[in-house]
Amino acid sequence: MSLTVSRRSFLGGITAAVGCLTGEAALIAQGPGVVRQPRPRIGLEEYDAAAKLAYNENPYGPSDAVMKAMNTAFKYDNRYGYPDGDLVQELAKHHGVKTENLLLGAGSGEILQVSGRAFLGGGRKVVGVTPTFSEVYEYASGVRSESIILPLREDYGQDIPALIKTTKNNHRDVGFIYVCTPNNPTGVVVTRQEIRQLLDGVPEDVPVLIDEAYHHYVDTPEYATSIPYVLEGRTVVVARTFSKIYGLAGMRLGYAIAPKALIDRMRPHCTGSINALVKWAGVTALGDTAAAERVRTSTLQLRRKTTAELEGMGFRVLPSETNFFMVHIRRQVQPVIDELRTRGVLVGRPFPPMLEHLRVSVGTPDEMARFLGAFKEIVGRKTAA
Fold first, then answer.
1. Which end of the chain, N or C, is less packed with Cβ atoms under 10 Å?
2. In this structure, are residues 254 and 212 in contact, taking their beta carbons and an 8 Å threshold?
3. DSSP characters for 114-130?
4. Alpha helix stretches (DSSP H) within 135-188
5. What average pLDDT score do residues 65-73 get?
6. Topology annotation, domain 44-63+290-378
7. Which residues pair with residue 104 across a beta bridge?
């Protein structure tokens, strides 16, 4: 099935287009000219007082060492060509790649935008799934391209054979394939075997953009980073970010790891907007492994505790490998999102077509207690259907 849809119908009516995430892979051509709809603005006082569980952030913020590094870097705020802590060199050392394999971006979001500008020229399309981090499709529309979007499997995993088949069927029109693993918003991983199946199954000249924003939180041995494929010279771009476990979401720092030929295609489209404070923060965060491990341990413990309580109330929670989870509340999520906000709890937006699944980031112990208290009042202690 093929369908051209506007942004409004893409967000609001995609359920009708792809069914219930089952059956044959439905294809959606998202036409050019799509504009991302902004979320409602929130006042400063409300924001500061709220339990912020909407954007999958690290609620503890940068470590003390990172804060000290940023404060020290203020002395460069009036200079061009300042010392930057050798961030690219440190990243190369950290990942065992060459500096020519790295490209910095203002968050991994810029890496996705750059990929769209670099690989989607001449009307080429991006192939991916829904729901996922859909901004990549919006970036495609910004360069007047289209997206071929497939539904998830019944188990909410990504349908690798369908991605391979679709890419082959549209080979000369495909600019790149997008895979987010663990996937946002479901939290479900694409296994190491599935990634290899995908890379071995698609034409060698089609880039595969693998978004590993939540890599640090994965706890299953079935997952593996795809950086080794870059070392093999495969046509792979791995996107990473400092926005999650390192607590730098508001500072904007991400990067791509890819073969030099792909980096060279991407580099002209980058803005070079990374500032001195952020570069020093990144270098220090990489070295502060103890702080990252504290965040990881606390987050996973709280996720398990919270999801166990929700399951004890009779609600199914998807098996997340991230710092967020999705709970099936068996009713439309938007009214619940709105009601939670009146109680000072901010959670994720709706993710069509999963409009009965609520995405919740893992915050501090206090924030999770506030969420559970409000959830019980609003949704109630229901038993499993």
1. C
2. no
3. HHHHHH-GGG-EEEEEE
4. 135-142, 160-169
5. 97
6. Aspartate Aminotransferase, domain 1 (3.90.1150)
7. 255
For 121, the token pair is: 């020229």
The span from the CA of 319 to the CA of 329, in Å, is 15
Flag whether pLDDT at 356 surpasses 70.
yes
Q: Record the tokens describing residue 374, joined without a space.
A: 């409000």
Average pLDDT over every residue of 38-56: 87
From CA 334, how far away is CA 249, in angstroms rounded? 25
Torsion of CA 141, 146, 152, 157, to 10 degrees: -80
Query: Is the pTM value of this prediction over 0.85?
Result: yes
Residue 314 reports pLDDT greater than 50: yes
Query: Of 32, 36, 38, which is closest to residue 142 (Cα–Cα)?
Result: 32
- Quick: pLDDT tens for 80-96: 999 999 999 999 999 99
Q: Where exactly are the structural domains of the chain?
A: 44-63+290-378
pLDDT above 90 for 33: no
Residue 381 pLDDT class (50, 70, 90 cuts): low
In whole angstroms, give the CA distance from residue 154 to residue 228: 30
Q: Are 149 and 130 in contact (CB under 8 A)?
A: yes
The two three-digit tokens of residue 222, written as one number: 């079935």
pLDDT at position 41 is 75
What are the CA-CA distances from residue 142 to residues 23, 80, 167, 273 (Å)?
Answer: 30, 31, 21, 20
CB-based contact 231:92 (threshold 8 Å): no
